Amino acid sequence: MTDTLPIHDLVGLVQPQLDRLNRELILDLAPGHREMLPLVEHVGGFRGKQLRPVLTFLSGIAVRGASHGGGLGDDVVTVAKVIELLHTATLVHDDVLDGGSLRRRIPTVNQMAGVEVAVLLGDYIYAKAFHMAVQLPDPTAARWLAETVRVICQGEITQVLHRFDLAWSEARYFTVIAEKTASLYAAACRLGAYYSGSSEARLRALEEFGLELGIAFQIVDDCLDLDGDERIVGKSLGTDLSKGKITLPMLYLMQRGPAEAERLRSVLGKSEAEALRRLHSEFPLEHAIAYAMEEAQRRIAKAQASLSLLPKGPGRDALHQLAGFVLTRRL
């Protein structure tokens, strides 16, 4: 393959569908009470690369080997909207869990309107998403996404229960990030292909692609939380340290011995700024980041290999290169 294209070039294949999705979401989320409108408009600012709906559209194209997205049906667009809404709801709730103050360089809902409003707004978006899903003639999306949300919540709860747990293992870490992050990527790929008439073999291949890509995405995200630039990343950094979440770079540091693990324990729970300052000054963070990124690269290679079952075409090529983009992102 050639070098990875810029993200906007990869998205260009499905830009008409993405533009339609964004136009319609404004109407879909319109609240019944006027005082909610500023909140709904505010969360619209959280949209970034929109990888999950892009993956839904590209998967629908890839299973057909089509040269463009014109053949994608209305059901695929609806599924992509539901997935984007579910992701938005998780962001609103994640900011509550992490106490985050910034998201996409704008205040989080909990920062702007308080925790109570943020929790309820996340629930409102979840409810709207599932209302849209059950309107589809084929109930597969509603069933699959309901199970996916259960899995996401299961992963989040497990992570919360094991904050500050120095007995946390890499195996548990990978299980949790597969649940809380990668499961929605897997659902986006599988359902985009399903509503485009895919065979079961290709559905499984795309589900694996999404799962491995999502795991890699979370690993990179965990690295950026420790070593990113807040001005570029656009959200609060150091929250994993302050909340006691044990991520892959920290697991690497803990494996250096009991003394190192105890020193790391003394960093966890500090304020974001203090925790990051100490991590950068007292630990070999660059080696920990390199270790984690090597694992992310292995996951991306596995994801790309799963695409071999798909017909050749621009959809498959775009998915392959989109996976490469995940490794180089800085936001």
Describe the structure.
The protein has 331 residues and is an all-alpha fold. It has a single domain (7-215, 304-328), classed as Farnesyl Diphosphate Synthase, CATH 1.10.600. The protein is 71% helix and 1% strand. The protein has helices at residues 7-11, 15-28, 37-44, 51-62, 74-98, 109-113, 115-133, 140-161, 170-194, 200-227, 230-233, 239-243, 248-254, 258-265, 272-282, 285-306, 314-328, and strands spanning 102-103, 106-107. A two-stranded antiparallel ribbon has the order 1-2. Strand 1 and strand 2 form a beta hairpin. The longest helix is centred in the middle third of the chain and has 28 residues, at 200-227. The model has no long low-confidence stretch (mean pLDDT 92).
Written as H for each helix and E for each strand, in order along the chain, the element string is HHHHHEEHHHHHHHHHHHH
The unreliable regions are none
Strand order of the largest sheet: 1-2
Percent strand equals under 5%
Q: What's the CATH class label? A: Mainly Alpha
Average pLDDT for all residues: 92
Helix and strand composition category: mainly alpha
Based on DSSP secondary structure assignment, what is the total number of beta strands? 2
Helical segment count = 17
Report how far apart the termini are: 24 Å
Tally of separate domains? 1
Largest sheet: 2 strands, antiparallel
Corresponding CATH architecture: Orthogonal Bundle
At the fourth level of CATH, the homologous superfamily is Farnesyl Diphosphate Synthase
What is the CATH topology? Farnesyl Diphosphate Synthase
- Overall, the morphology is globular
Structural Rg: 20 Å
- Proportion of residues in helical segments: over 70%
